[in-house]
Amino acid sequence: MKKILIILFLVIVLVGSVGCNNDEDTNQQEPNNNQSEEEQKDNEENNNNDKDKSSAITSPLSGINTEESKINRRPVAIMFDNHKNARWQSGLSEAEIAYEYLVEGKITRYMGIYLINDPEVIGPLRSARPYYLSSLLEYDAIYAHAGGSPQAKEEIRELGIADVDAIGAAGSVFYRNNDVGKKAPHNLYTSMESIREYAENKDFNKEAEFNSFSFNKEGKDIDGDVAKDISIHYDSDNITSYKYDEELSLYMRYKDGEKHLDEYDNTILTSTNIIIQEAKTQVLDDQGRLQIDIVGKGKGTYITRGKYINITWEKTSRESKTKYYDEDVKEIILNPGITWIQVTPINPKVEIS
After folding, report:
1. Is the link from the previous residue into 130 a cis peptide, with omega within 30 of 0?
2. H or E segment to which residue 88 belongs
3. Quick one: which of 184, 298, 208 has its CA closest to 175?
């Protein structure tokens, strides 16, 4: 009997000790379980972030992340006045791609290409020229301008460009801005909302078909020579300059020695990529109108992140994309951000240091 009681006592002790050990194990494991849950949450968040990065929607004009609704519409090309009495411009800083071309009188004019941004104030606007049409056709863009040369107006009709002309049917889209201290014709303004509303009412195609640039996911250095200060001499008193900000990895834009400011918010214009594109340029008539051959081939310079390389370019038709190639004849991949395309005569005076 005593043996049975002893055996029962030992069994009870053993069962109790196992239960205690299990409780201790449970208590010791609870923090580990909580920790693993936190780690799991972190992992899930990281995975979601990775998915967001990999599936991010980027603008075909700039490689900048944006909303899907912003890219499922047509780009808009806008002509900007650059006469000294027109400076500065409103809304130009929000263009994803901007062109600077010569016009009559050895002055230049800008064309901004927009997709993801909708400036509230845009202007002053100016008239069209044929070579600008060859650039905007690359983006199948809606075209906002104020009249144009006889050849440009004829070609706008022949090419079926989605036209928003301030001196035509779209006059109500534009207004004279008397609050900026400028006189006509240098005070004609509009907004992106007004342009897109007009395009909607005219039943222009809502989507565009065009080949976009290729962009790196993040900014990358190029294997080139130093390019911290750039000066492009269109004429002795018509100089476009850029100064590199290493902290921002951006070029600050200057015109004729002054900071190029956006009139709307007084911020300086910047650029991630600068392309100098040399094109055959000749005077056509006694009005000084120009022919600039941007369909064809030529040479140029690509500048980004404080470096530059020599490039070549090719455009096979008015509608086709201009392709830019490095010295290995590989199409260049741009860094995400704003691109300024400086179209110059052949062998321009350009200083890079």
Report:
1. no
2. none
3. 184
Buried b (16+ CB within 10 A) or exposed e, 300-311: bbbbbbbbbbeb
- Quick: pLDDT tens for 148-176: 999 999 999 999 999 999 998 899 999 99
Rounded CA-CA distance 319/210 in Å is 9
What distance, in Å, lies between the first and last C-alpha atoms of the chain? 105
Alpha-carbon distance of 156 to 199, in angstroms, equals: 16
The pLDDT of residue 286 = 84
Helix (H) or strand (E) holding 239: strand 238-245
Taking the C-alpha atoms of residue 336 and residue 341, their distance in angstroms, rounded to an integer, is 15
DSSP-derived secondary structure letter, 89: B
pLDDT band at 3 (very low <50, low <70, confident <90, very high): very low
Contact, 220 vs 306, CB < 8 A?
Answer: no
Average pLDDT, rounded, for the chain: 88
Strand partners, 323: 314
Element housing 217 (H / E): none
For residues 174 and 189, the answer to whether their CB atoms sit within 8 Å is: yes
Q: What is the number of residues in the chain?
A: 353
Average pLDDT rounded to a whole number, residues 202-230:
95
Q: Residue 265 corresponds to which tokens in the numbers above? A: 């918010």
Any idea which of 164-173, 214-223, 229-238, 302-311 has the lowest mean pLDDT? 164-173
Q: Structure pTM? A: 0.84
SS3 state at 133: helix
Q: Which domains occur in the chain, in start order?
A: 68-201 (3.50.90.10), 225-352 (3.50.90.10)
* pLDDT tens sequence across 67-76: 998 999 999 9
Q: Is the dihedral of CA 344, 345, 347, 348 positive or negative?
A: negative
Angle among Cα 87, 61, 96 to the nearest 5 degrees reads 20
